Amino acid sequence: MHMSNTRKRLKLSDVADIRTGFTFREKIEELPVGNAHIVQIKDVRHIRDITQSQQIYTNQLPLIDWKGKAHLLIDSECVLLPCRGEYIKAHYFAGNQKESKALPLIVSSQFLILTSNQHVLPEYLCWYLNQPIVQYELRQIGQGSKIPMLSVSMISKYEVEVPSLDIQQHIVALHRTWEQEKRLTQQLIKNREQMMQGIFQQLLKGQ
């Protein structure tokens, strides 16, 4: 299969709409039942540790009782880029795994929300922002205060590499396969560890 390898460097603001998440004035109260999901950095870090994936779904996230404006809610694919603190791994919000039970998402101000246009697949943009050299450069951009911070204006001019859509799709497919391999490896290690613990206990009891 022939794939076009034309690529160019474009400013982030030319390939995505960038805005900040919602600033809560009071402590966020997570509930067993609610009308919207909430995403904070603690949530995406926990999900990444478990799934070994940059992808998140609304049904993986806590619920809240949202009484704010409807236009602040997210219900379509986007990239969530943490903008406060040391953790700046991008996450790809893929919507809900169960469409019939889909509730909208409210993104906290701990993130910048990047909604890509027709030139860039959101999953590719997320992958690109997580590349080591890009992560390093974003950290450099965010330095200058006690707590590293990224703002819309700071990253708007950052240039990203934009290959053709077929190349983007190929990269996304390969990355999904790699994430699946990491999950399987993690599970194998966990199973092996449990087995070894059992052997150790048997040896101790046999003394």
TrEMBL record:
Keyword DNA-binding assigned: yes
An annotated Gene Ontology molecular function: DNA binding
Gene3D superfamilies tied to this protein: DNA methylase specificity domains
Keyword set, alphabetical order: DNA-binding, Restriction system
GO biological process entries: DNA restriction-modification system
Superkingdom of origin organism: Bacteria
A Pfam entry, by short name: Methylase_S
UniProt keyword DNA-binding, yes or no: yes
Database matches in InterPro entries: Restrct_endonuc_typeI_TRD, Restrct_endonuc_typeI_TRD_sf, Type-I_RS_S_subunit
Residue ranges of domain Type I restriction modification DNA specificity in the record: 10-180
Family: Belongs to the type-I restriction system S methylase family.
Protein name: Type I restriction modification DNA specificity domain-containing protein
